[in-house]
Specification:
- By secondary structure, the protein is an alpha+beta fold.
- The chain is 18% helix and 45% strand.
- A hairpin with a 5-residue loop joins strand 3 (74-84) and strand 4 (90-92).
Length: 169
């Protein structure tokens, strides 16, 4: 999945999550949603991107694809690991991904991360996309800190730390 496709998918998932909130609060623009939702890090030509999305706002097809149950108290952590080919393209990389979510009271949740593949098998433009998915419980309103460790196949360990705020729907 290219960077642009990942960013569009992130903005779309965030938009779906916000749909029907009815809070009267202004809805962030795509650019604002992107800044709020995507965290990333890079070591050499390896890029790691992560998103934390309330599962209640996921569409049925997306929830089914990732094997996630939609629930008001559950957040999906989605992590993508890609090798940048230097020409605007990216290749999905297998990796070992571990993650912890910590709430404002300091309660830690070790997330059971699992690999989800989609797309066509093989290499090149139609290759498999590999994402890593886990869930955390949240009682809104709250802020969760995500500590993610990624060890790409044949690569150095990488860490990503980010916070996300979650509000009642």
């Amino acid at each position: 999945m290219t960077d642009a496709v990942f960013r569009v998918a992130t903005a779309l998932l965030f938009g779906i999550a916000l749909a029907g909130c009815g809070s009267g609060a202004p809805v962030p623009t795509d650019g604002q949603a992107q800044m709020q939702q995507e965290a990333s890090t890079r070591v050499g030509n390896v890029v790691v991107r992560a998103n934390a999305i309330p599962t209640a706002g996921l569409g049925e097809a997306v929830a089914r694809q990732y094997g996630i149950e939609r629930d008001a108290g559950t957040v999906m952590l989605l992590v993508g690991v890609r090798r940048d080919d230097g020409n605007g393209g990216e290749t999905a990389l297998p990796a070992r991904v571990t993650a912890v979510a910590i709430d404002l009271l300091g309660k830690r949740q070790q997330l059971a991360m699992r690999e989800v593949r989609s797309g066509n098998s093989g290499s090149g433009p139609g290759q498999d996309f590999i994402d890593y998915v886990g869930t955390a419980r949240v009682i809104t309103p709250d802020t969760l800190r995500f500590d993610v460790e990624v060890v790409p196949e044949d690569g150095p360990a990488m860490e990503l730390h980010f916070n996300r705020d979650f509000f009642p729907r």
